[in-house]
Write a structure and sequence with these properties.
about 170 residues, mainly alpha, Four Helix Bundle (Hemerythrin (Met), subunit A), two-stranded antiparallel ribbon
Length: about 170
């Protein structure tokens, strides 16, 4: 039987990263049709103190990879946060999907009880058991950034709906 921690994480990350990729394709098409630079969308924010679209996508991919890696007991991959185009963000999503696909259900066995240490060696250090890490930290963080990316694009005129957000499941 496939471990619960695997089925509760990897398929969810894959589903929403694929839908985020599809939404970014629509965003690039919108920019072409309306004759504006897609960089306008990458720099768009919901409010001045929030991260722009490009950073929302970066953080979403980071959470998908880091949560999966920690639960699987492997090193967390690191990527530069210098994506300057929708094409580069698409490449980043592809790398995240490839990494997640490289993990096996077996690697997640027992991860619900594994101690996950966040921000080790800092004043914000926190230790969580794997189940709490996934349910109370990792998934909510991931959903927040994917949702915010979706909201930024919707706010800027991209005609998408819940089906686009959910993707194929």
């Amino acid at each position: 039987m496939t471990p619960y921690m695997y089925t509760s994480s990897v398929p969810v990350f894959k589903q929403l990263l694929n839908s985020l990729s599809a939404i970014l394709i629509k965003a690039e098409t919108l920019a072409i049709e309306k004759k504006f630079e897609s960089k306008v969308l990458l720099d768009a924010r919901l409010f001045p103190d929030m991260f722009p679209l490009s950073r929302q996508v970066q953080i979403a991919t980071d959470f998908a990879m880091s949560v999966s890696a920690r639960l699987a007991g492997v090193e967390v991959p690191a990527y530069d946060n210098n994506d300057q185009s929708i094409t580069e963000l698409q490449e980043r999503i592809s790398k995240a999907l490839l990494f997640i696909d490289s993990l096996t259900p077996t690697q997640f066995e027992g991860s619900e009880a594994r101690e996950i240490i966040l921000r080790p060696g800092t004043p914000k250090e926190k230790t969580l058991l794997g189940h709490n890490y996934l349910s109370n930290y990792g998934l909510p963080q991931f959903f927040f950034h994917v949702t915010t990316a979706y909201d930024i694009l919707r706010h800027n005129g991209l005609e998408v709906g819940k089906g686009d957000f959910m993707g194929a499941y």
